[in-house]
Structure formats: C-alpha cells, structure tokens
Amino acid sequence: MAGDFTIVISNRVRFGDLKKDPGGEIDHDSDADLLGQSGSFPFLCPGVDSSKQAVLQFVHRGSNQDLPFPVPQPDGGLVGITPEHPVTINGQQLAGGIPASPVRGQMSLWSTRLLLIPPQMLRRDNVLRIETKRLGPNGGLDNFTLDNVVVFYKTRPFIRLPIDVTDQIEQTLG
C-alpha cells in the first residue's frame, strides 16, 4: 500500500509567554515565531486513506511542565494530572502530546516525538492545534519550541481505468 507525507510546520514556532522561570531557563529559540498559548495549522493530505492509522512526528524542546522528564506512568498515582500539552487534529485530541523536555544543565535538549493518529481522524483538509498550559496555579505559560512537524499517512489505491481511444484514432487517420 502506498503512503505519503505532509509537512505541517517547517520552521520553528514557539508557544508560551517568554517569561523566564525561577530556575533561569535559557532562551535558545528567541528567533522562533511566538504564537502564545495556542496555534492552529491547516494542512492537506491528498488521497488519504482515512480508514488507516497515521503518524504525527515532531521535534520539541524547552517544555518544563509540572512533571520531570521522563513522565512517570499513569499507574504511579498521578490522578488528575495531565502532564502533556494537548495536541488535536480536526478537533479530536491525540493520545499523548508535548511532553517535558530532557535537560542537560540549563539547556533544554531537542527530542523527537511520534504520536499515532487513529483511523477516521484524517481527511483531505485538516487542522493541527497545539496548546501550552500554565505551570502551577499561579505560574506563567510553559515555554517550548516545535520544529519539523510532519504527518505520515497511507493513500487510497489508484485504479487506472482503460480508456477507449478507437474513435480518436479513426478521426486522426481519417
């Protein structure tokens, strides 16, 4: 079965309010477009076979969130905590989201994330929406950067129909 991909975001974009956290986060991506609390990105998937699962891939860095990297598993007593920033396609939230970023010293490291897109979610015209959350009840928005957001999907099979050109040949040869 054939597949295709669509580049949703090809340049760096930043979410958040650019306020430094008390830990003194270093701003490595000040040249990225600042989108604030959320951003919506329309994208096309021509010929998508929506009955098949797809994959959303992106790289991210800078997210602090309420939980450290790696995020503990749900059976660790994290009732009521949503550790990852929500990612939706066409108004439906994907399982997983933008997680906390790994850090070395004070520098946030780039990390790649793959999210599965369930069947029936993609169509030809789509909208990806990403949001950031507040850090704690009185905190500012979590600041993070995304880059190279791509959707990989299966396409419908192409069926070539035979075309009868007998009349065209007879008219040409006359």
Helical stretch tally: 1
Q: Give the mean pLDDT.
A: 81
The level of helicity is under 10%
Please state the structural category. Answer: mainly beta
Please write the string of helix (H) and strand (E) elements: EEEEEEEEEEEEH
Shape: elongated
CATH class bucket: Mainly Beta
Number of domains: 1
Strand content: 35-45%
Question: How is the CATH topology named?
Answer: Jelly Rolls
Radius of gyration: 22 Å
CATH-scheme architecture = Sandwich
Count every beta strand, where a strand is a DSSP E run of 2 or more residues: 12
Poorly predicted sequence stretches spanning 5 or more consecutive residues: 74-81
- Sheet with the most strands, sense and barrel status: 6 strands, mixed
The quaternary organization reads as single chain
Distance between the termini: 44 Å
